[in-house]
Amino acid sequence: MESKESDIPKEQIFRLFDDKPTSGLSFLDFSEKPLPPPPPCREVLDSEVSKDVKYNVEPVNVGGLTLVKGRVNTQEVFALANSDLVPGKYEGGLKLWEGSLDLITALSSEIKDGRLSFSGKQVLELGCGHGLPGIFACLKGASTVHFQDFNAEVLQCLTIPNVIANIEKNSQHSASHVEGPTNIETRFFSGDWSEVDRLLSCHQPDQASGYDVILMAETVYSISALPNLFKLITKCLRNPDGVVYMAAKKYYFGVGGGSRRFLSVVEKDGVFASSLVAEVADGSSNVREVWKLHFK
């Protein structure tokens, strides 16, 4: 019988498999339909913010900060009505997923407890959508924050306006909210995880190799994408001191992914240790988790 998640100590190293050589990943053989070719990877500039899509702003209180989050119409941007995602075309970046807020709350707790500092750090947010965790890193002293999303349209219509709105809003209260350098480097990259690494800091000869912190929320819902996501992390995380914070649902029913599916990929590779940072079971959805990965 599976033990209750509440019985797992907060920082306990997670082991999904035993040490027997017969342990494997056969249950990860999940059939998904072939996807269309991904859009080309490219950098999206601040100047490419969409002028044609209506962008509405509303406040959200999380992690000790009041941030603003934009809202845009999926129909206007992608000609898709009432759809969270269309695999290979639109990957849900216009919706604010619960995991983004869970991640910020966990990051705030990690900072308060002295286990994390963004001061002067290079940060990458994968599958950013609204970009709120990356924005949180900006406001907590990161020197560089790069945002990545599958769709350039999400960056143009939502992420970049959100970053600009939040930095401008909070810079007016810098004494109490913004920590560290105010001249933050923010850049935006679109494309598939299988190719986008060639544009990121880990492949730029004029920058130190890798990111100090990689953030990602609700990125592990698709089984077919997990290997590319894991490879991207291993390429882009600074060794040996880099850390990954991942927020996700324990299981994504109907699509097969989840935090535990991704952690089984992590464990099989053997490069990273993983620890549970937070668990959210509020009854509004299935169990959500925040995990931390670091090099062994």
TrEMBL record:
GO terms for cellular component: cytoplasm; nucleus. GO terms for molecular function: protein-L-histidine N-tele-methyltransferase activity. Its main location: cytoplasm. One of its GO terms (biological process) is methylation. Pfam families: Methyltransf_16. It comes from the Eukaryota. It is found in: Cytoplasm; Nucleus. Keywords: Cytoplasm, Methyltransferase, Nucleus, S-adenosyl-L-methionine, Transferase. Its EC number is 2.1.1.85. Belongs to the methyltransferase superfamily. METTL18 family. This is protein-histidine N-methyltransferase. The lineage of its organism: Eukaryota, Viridiplantae, Streptophyta, Embryophyta, Tracheophyta.
